[in-house]
Amino acid sequence: MSRIKPLNFSKLTPDIQNILFAVETNMGFMPNDALVMAHKPDVMSAFGALVQAVYNNQSEISSVLKRLIGLVTSQAAGCRYCQAHTAHAALNHDINDAKLEALWEYETSPLYSDAERAALRLAQAAGMSPAYVSEDIFTELNSHFSNSQIVEIVATISLLGFLNKWNSVFETEIESLPKAVLNKYFPH
User: Fold this and answer.
1) Superfamily (CATH H level) for 63-185
2) I need a surface site. Which of 65, 72, 168, 183 has the fewest CB within 10 A?
3) How much is the pLDDT for 58?
4) Among 107, 112, 182, 122, which residue's Cα sits nearest to residue 154?
5) Can you tell me the distance from the alpha carbon of 19 to that of 91, in angstroms, rounded to the nearest whole number?
6) In this predicted model, what pLDDT tens digit does every residue of 38-54 receive, in sequence order?
7) What average pLDDT does this structure show over 47-74?
8) C-beta of residue 120 within 8 angstroms of C-beta of residue 106
9) Domain positions in the chain
10) Whole-model pTM over 0.90
């Protein structure tokens, strides 16, 4: 059970209900972390704007790679809630099962390109601690991505860093849909 009880949707202001209705439509379920965040509507509104900026339709980074970046970041940070959500989102953005199952072998799996490996290496290092991001990681990243793309990758990692801390501190209860995906693909 979450350390802070998620608010009941019916108790939210119309503005926050509209934000969360869009979130639910996009995700396929109502996320508990958003219902906890709704205790502070200004934080919820600002966070919603950040999510839209990071996951917008004019992205230079594929939606699948962004979800994999989020998943690796969350795994490195130890946040099961965010691992569940990002795995669920990856499946909703048409990742194939084999690629998702091979995620933890991204360094050697032929299912991952050199560019994907570079982005996931950054996600793994930054997810543990930004201090682990070496010049070698950035040199490799620069050989595959433009500055604008790198900013987008780091924005994705940073967004998940916030969510990893938020959900780990609150011990947010994982909803049934993402929990089923987590248990299927990453049961440990």
Assistant:
1) AhpD-like (1.20.1290.10)
2) 183
3) 87
4) 122
5) 23
6) 999 999 999 999 999 99
7) 93
8) yes
9) 12-54, 63-185
10) yes
